[in-house]
TrEMBL record:
PANTHER family named in the record: CHLORIDE CHANNEL PROTEIN CLC-E (PTHR43427)
Protein name as it appears in the record: Chloride channel protein
GO MF term list: chloride channel activity
A Pfam family matched in the record: CBS
Organism: Epilithonimonas lactis
Subcellular location: Membrane
Record has tRNA-binding as a keyword: no
Domain of life: Bacteria
Gene Ontology annotations for the cellular component aspect, listed alphabetically: chloride channel complex
Entry's transmembrane regions: 46-66, 86-108, 182-207, 219-237, 258-275, 295-313, 345-369, 375-393, 405-430, 436-456
Domain CBS positions: 491-550, 556-616
Lineage of source species: Bacteria, Pseudomonadati, Bacteroidota, Flavobacteriia, Flavobacteriales
Length: 616
């Protein structure tokens, strides 16, 4: 036995020396072990191991962040008297945004790209390579912002942190682009699963938002990462921290009309939420003041809103839990509304104002300098809208209104419309409420809200500006690579041309002396009049004497489409698909002919770029 152990030890020393030859002499012992396993295990086995390690690390990061923020909120809202809470609502939200901005400017050098768009950007434009700084920067920033009362969610920062963990793991062990992207998504999946204790929702999030259009046969790392993140959350987090709802009602098909109406209501609210976000973002961008002053402005607005409406403080999950537990009056006990007569209409007015102002509170939190995402705000707003809808139905006179179920499916509806992620919303609420029998109402509300969102805007307005600049993909991963190509490189400017006044006999001479099978017919000013191919000319080859004086304008064709030099390759390929052709002429704004562009040249360049990413 001693001899065997000695051999294993010597073997370890040998592979350590081998790795030192590859410049890994500063690697830690556990890194050397994983490098060794990478060489010994098959690709599938190592990806499975990677999914476990990334999932556990990202899940632990999520647990730490949730615990920090929960303890801060518990101290402020449960341990402090109302008069002091008002003071805290004035100071802490303001301080949270200002501190976060100051830290970004001083410690992180102004690099504050945040949210799901940051992950998509790294996948699309940076070969899934995420800076190692993001493995901790998002936790620090969001803990300060949301912990001190920022009206945003922790799930997006957790997802970015998990993505950074997965990407840096892949970089450390020299995995290629495809595997980096897979582990990046696995880290984000584990983060979402940890935040909500919902592994299936985490997987849906990865496929529905991060990996849209990307087909992975190796999806097992995503599954194991989600399971690891969820298990850590379940084991380490206290029950009151978990995103769990234990009270609900059985589904009754007679209540379908409620869900149909609620789907429309949440769809309209989601559109309102996104429009407010856009307006606030544009307003803050237009301000000609420093980032620190913007943070002070946003913090002041947020503090004012939190003083008037305490449910806007932080993530707001406790408020939604109060709705589902039948403790609606609790939400106004810590506000000035408690001095009013607690009749039903008082609660209705309070909830309407909370729902309307939540969009402003979240937008000022995020765009003035805080760090957070729209997961929690959309869930909070959806639950509030669902409860408000239920209360109004009861006041109208409807009996047996499924209040709890309307709160739950309202969360799914708003999240589906705000994030454009119906499957994630459906499975998140189903898992969090143990309500798999609610799949029908969840699908009804989420799909209606999502379709309304798509009707207003084909892609999420949050990502639209980045998509227009080619920074992220909209619906296919291929577009990311195509955006790195330049149209100018594919234009054949040596194309053969012929004047519109020329005859077919002149065209025959051009064919004999040239080596092209495509011709542009131009006027004296170089304007494109039509195009010709060898197939168009071939019938006249065998009857040249009778057709010698026939003008080329008699046999030329109008091109099915025209390409401009400023068109993106992705749009050009779509034009090729729409017209069913392989060659199209390129002209400028005055219709002056520039050259021809071929579909095959773009596809060939795309394959070369794709191969470069796969080998990297």
């Amino acid at each position: 036995m001693k001899i065997y152990n000695k051999k294993r030890f010597l073997s370890f020393l040998k592979f350590k020396r081998d790795f030192q030859q590859y410049g890994l002499e500063k690697a830690r012992s556990y890194e050397l072990i994983i490098h060794w396993l990478n060489n010994k295990l098959s690709r599938s086995q190592f990806l499975l191991l990677s999914g476990i390690l990334v999932g556990c690390t990202a899940g632990l990061a999520g647990v730490i962040l949730k615990t920090i923020v929960h303890n801060i909120h518990f101290f402020i809202t449960n341990k402090v008297h109302f008069e002091y809470q008002v003071l805290f609502y004035i100071i802490f939200p303001f301080l949270g945004i200002v501190l976060t901005t100051s830290i970004v400017l001083t410690i992180f050098k102004g690099q504050d790209r945040k949210g799901i768009g940051a992950i998509l950007y790294e996948i699309a434009k940076n070969s899934s390579i995420v800076s190692s700084v993001k493995t901790y920067s998002q936790i620090v920033q969001s803990a300060i912002t949301v912990g001190l009362g920022g009206s945003a969610g922790l799930e997006s920062p957790i997802a970015v942190t998990g993505a950074a963990i997965g990407s840096n793991f892949a970089q450390t062990y020299r995995l290629n682009y495809k595997e980096r992207t897979l582990l990046l998504a696995a880290g984000a999946t584990a983060g979402i699963a940890s935040a909500f204790n919902a592994p299936i929702a985490g997987i849906m999030f990865a496929f529905e938002i991060l990996l849209t259009g990307v087909v992975f046969t190796d999806f097992i790392p995503l599954v194991v990462a989600a399971v690891c993140g969820s298990l850590l959350s379940r084991i380490l987090l206290q029950e009151d921290v978990l995103f769990r709802f234990y009270t609900r009602e059985a589904f009754n098909y007679k209540n379908v009309p409620y869900y149909l109406i609620l789907g429309i209501v949440t769809g309209l609210y989601a559109r309102y939420f996104l429009l407010v976000s856009q307006k606030v973002e544009h307003f803050l961008k237009r301000l000609q003041i420093s980032r620190l002053r913007k943070a002070m402005l946003g913090g002041a607005v947020l503090s004012f809103l939190c003083v008037l409406f305490p449910p806007l403080f932080g993530e707001g999950y406790d408020t939604v839990k109060a709705f589902t537990n039948g403790h609606a009056n609790v939400i106004i006990e810590n506000s000035f509304f408690k001095y009013f007569d607690l009749r039903e209409y008082t609660i209705i007015i309070f909830l309407i104002l909370v729902c309307l102002l939540k969009a402003f509170a979240t937008s000022f939190t995020i765009f003035s300098g805080g760090n957070g995402g729209n997961f929690a705000p959309s869930l909070f707003a959806g639950g509030s809208v669902g409860f408000l809808f239920a209360v109004i139905c009861q006041q109208i006179g409807f009996k047996e209104v499924p209040v709890t179920n309307l709160v739950l499916v309202g969360m799914a509806g708003a999240m589906s419309g705000v994030l454009y992620a119906p499957l994630t919303a459906i499975f998140l609420i189903a898992e969090s409420s143990f309500g798999y029998d609610l799949f029908i109402p969840l699908m009804i509300v989420s799909v209606i809200s999502y379709l309304m969102a798509k009707w207003f805007s084909p892609i999420s307005p949050e990502l639209k500006s980045m998509a227009e600049q080619g920074k992220i993909f909209t619906n296919e991963h291929d577009k990311n690579l195509l955006f790195s190509l330049h149209t100018e490189d594919f234009i054949d400017k040596d194309a053969q041309t012929i004047n519109e006044l020329a005859s077919i006999n002149d065209l025959f001479e051009l064919v004999k002396n040239g080596n092209k099978n495509l011709f542009a017919v131009l006027n004296d000013e170089g304007k494109l009049k039509g195009i010709l191919t060898l197939d168009d000319i071939r019938p006249y080859f065998f009857n040249q004497e009778n057709n010698a004086d026939l003008p080329v304008t008699k046999i030329m064709k109008t091109p099915p489409a025209l390409i401009r030099p400023e068109n993106q390759p992705v749009d050009i390929l779509q034009t090729f698909d729409d017209t069913g052709t392989w060659y199209l002429p390129v002209v400028d704004d005055q219709n002056t002919f520039i050259g021809f562009i071929s579909k095959s040249s773009i596809l060939m360049s795309y394959r070369q770029v794709l191969k470069g990413y796969s080998d990297s």
